[in-house]
Amino acid sequence: SATGVDKVYDGTTTPGGSSSSSRQSRLYDLLASVTGKDASTIAPQQTLISEVGLDSLGRVELLAAIAREYN
Fold first, then answer.
1. Which residues contact 42 (CB under 8 A, 6 or more apart)?
2. Is the model's pTM score more than 0.85?
3. Number of other CB atoms surrounding residue 17 within 10 Å
C-alpha cells in the first residue's frame, strides 16, 4: 500500500501562492518529462512508483526539476 508521499500531488494545497490547478498541471508536466509518459495520463490517485513508473533515479530527476522550477 502506498503512503501519502508516494501519491501524485492532487492540487488541494497551494504553497507559494500559485493556483492549485496551474501547480498541478506543471507538476504533471514535470512528471511526464521525467517518466516519458503523457501528462494527461497521470492522475492524482496514482502511485508514483508502480502506476506512474517513477524509479529511484526518476525521483532524483523529479526533485531536481522541481527545484529548478520553484527556486
1. 8, 28, 31, 32, 52
2. no
3. 6
pLDDT band at 6 (very low <50, low <70, confident <90, very high): low
Quote the distance between the C-alpha of residue 9 and its chain's center.
Answer: 6
DSSP line for 32-68: HHHH---GGG--TTSBTTTTT---HHHHHHHHHHHHH
Give per-residue pLDDT as tens, 31-57. Answer: 999 999 999 999 989 999 999 999 999
Q: Say whether 47 sits in a helix, a strand or coil.
A: strand
pLDDT at position 1, please? 44
Exposed/middle/buried for residue 19 (C-beta within 10 Å: 0-12, 13-18, 19+): exposed
Is the Cβ–Cβ distance between 47 and 6 less than 8 Å? yes
